[in-house]
């Protein structure tokens, strides 16, 4: 049941808002009809204006309630009300302090252009190694302490093994984890069946959120796949912001990532 948020295209007509219950009924009917017809994807269009954030909350709650076995696409026509929300204003202020390219001052409101933070650069899949101290720096050529073959025989536990161990430790089922992480079950099956599977950084972060890991645990899990959280990347700062505050709802995090033009987790 991966859920993605996308922008409406020019010319798309946004529906009229008739209240929470009417919207819930419309979304629920669409989900049930799509599943009964054997469709793989269903698109739910959200109204524009001040009801857009309310409609998004109703839509995500309805999707969770229906729990359909299909991909759900939420089409947002207007981001104006997103920036007026208190939580988004706090996040905008945090980004202005944490990132040099973030806009200074207060968070955006509908009458002011929302922040244009450049998308995060593609993550480098490289292991972060601690810098040697002055005492440890080599004075000259030195013979290797072990052969390459010996080093390769002593690799850390791979990502897949670490993930599955965490699933067991937290007494969760596979279904609970991949749904909380906003992932397709087929992708999770690939990870479980391939001990050396290395996911994308977005997938690894989504799984950390789905497992409700704290910041240190998240960094440790990412390292198993060769990634790290960077204070120079907008998306990483946003995800870290929510994790440190104990928010592990991937759809809430994705709403913020979407608003600031960043790649979504999972899906």
In short:
The protein is mainly α and 267 residues long. It is built from 12 helices and 3 strands, in the order βαβαβαααααααααα.
Could you characterize the architecture of this molecule?
The chain is mainly α and 267 residues long. Helix content is 46%, strand content 6%. It has 12 helices and 3 strands. The protein has helices at residues 20-36, 52-66, 80-84, 86-98, 148-152, 159-169, 174-180, 185-193, 201-210, 215-224, 234-244, 250-259; strands at residues 3-7, 41-45, 71-76. It has a 3-stranded parallel β-sheet with strand order 1-3-2. Strand 2, helix 2 and strand 3 form a beta-alpha-beta unit. The longest helix is centred in the N-terminal third of the chain and has 17 residues, at 20-36. It starts with a strand and ends in an 8-residue tail after the last helix. Residues 103-117 and 119-132 have low confidence and may be disordered.
Secondary structure layout plus pairing:
Layout: E1 3-7, H1 20-36, E2 41-45, H2 52-66, E3 71-76, H3 80-84, H4 86-98, H5 148-152, H6 159-169, H7 174-180, H8 185-193, H9 201-210, H10 215-224, H11 234-244, H12 250-259
Parallel strand pairs: 1-3, 2-3
Helix pairs in contact: 1-2, 4-11, 7-9, 9-10
Largest sheet: 3 strands, parallel
Q: Low-confidence segments, ≥5 residues, pLDDT <50?
A: 103-117, 119-132
- Which range does the strand content fall in? 5-15%
Question: Radius of gyration from the CA trace?
Answer: 21 Å
Order of helices and strands: EHEHEHHHHHHHHHH
> How are the strands ordered across the major sheet?
1-3-2
Mean pLDDT figure: 81
What's the tally of helices? 12
